[in-house]
Every structure is written in structure tokens, then in C-alpha cells.
Design goal:
Blueprint (H helix, E strand, L loop, with lengths): L1 E6 L5 E4 L1 H11 L4 E6 L5 E7 L4 H13 L13 H10 L2 E7 L2 E2 L5 E7 L5 E9 L1
Antiparallel strand pairs: 1-8, 2-7, 3-5, 3-8, 4-7, 5-6
The structure holds zinc ion.
Length: 130
């Protein structure tokens, strides 16, 4: 298993990690298989979406904020319930097919770490199955 470290700089942001995951696939030497990507955190998540127009990730963040506002009424006393809920909505793991030694992403797709309670140091665990 490979561990990628990502330092986030804002409370909420999407950080593209496609190149970091691709580096891991390349180093593994696996030509055909599955890449499992996982974040061991409760207030960040992962998603695959468009990496060409940055307004797409801005729209996802702003709509999540409307659904689950930071200042809403929650029971959890730590003050970051919105971050826990947003991370559960997006999920903590992804699987991407590897073929010809590369991630089989669509033309406009990128892999994003989704920070909801930063800035923090985040870990992304990558396991490659051949
Ligand atoms: Zn909490």
C-alpha cells in the first residue's frame, strides 16, 4: 500500500490528486488491474469529476454548502458536523480500472480529495491489485 500526503490550505476545497495516483500506478508496474483509493478520515472525502473547468468543483462545493450549511443546527459538539455529513455524502473510497499501465479515466475526469474541515494534513491510501 502506498500513502500519499496532501496538505490542504482551506476549510473546504477540492484538490486534484490524479497525478499523484498515476505516479503510484506507474511505480507499481501493474499493467492491468484495479486501483483502490481511500481516505482514512471522517471529514474529507474523494470524488471523480470534471478537471477542465474549475467552476464545476466550485458548484459542487457551493451546492453541498446549501444542503449542509456549516452553521446549521447539529448535535455533534465539535462544531464540524457539516464536514462529517459532506464526507459521508461523497464517500471515502474510489476504484479505478488500470489498463495498459494507466488509470482508465474519462477525458474530462480527475480524482479529487475533498476537504471539508481543513486546513489539515490528509492521507490518501492507494492499493493496486493486478
Ligand atoms: Zn467532529
Amino acid at each position: 500500500m502506498e500513502k500519499i500526503i496532501v496538505k490542504t490550505t482551506r476549510r473546504q476545497e477540492f484538490i486534484e490528486i490524479t497525478h499523484l495516483v498515476e505516479d503510484t500506478v506507474r511505480k507499481s508496474g501493474v499493467k492491468s488491474g484495479v486501483c483502490c483509493i481511500y481516505v482514512p478520515h471522517t471529514t474529507c472525502g474523494l470524488t471523480i469529476n470534471e478537471n477542465a473547468d474549475p467552476s464545476v468543483k466550485a458548484d459542487i462545493l457551493s451546492q453541498l454548502e446549501k444542503l449542509v450549511p456549516e452553521g446549521g443546527r447539529y448535535s455533534h459538539s465539535e462544531g464540524n458536523s457539516d464536514a462529517h455529513i459532506k464526507s459521508s455524502i461523497l464517500g471515502h473510497s474510489l476504484s479505478v480500472i488500470i489498463e495498459d499501465g494507466t488509470l482508465q479515466l474519462g477525458t474530462w475526469q480527475g480524482i479529487f480529495l475533498c476537504e471539508f474541515d481543513g486546513p489539515r494534513t490528509r492521507y490518501v491510501w492507494v492499493k493496486i491489485l493486478s
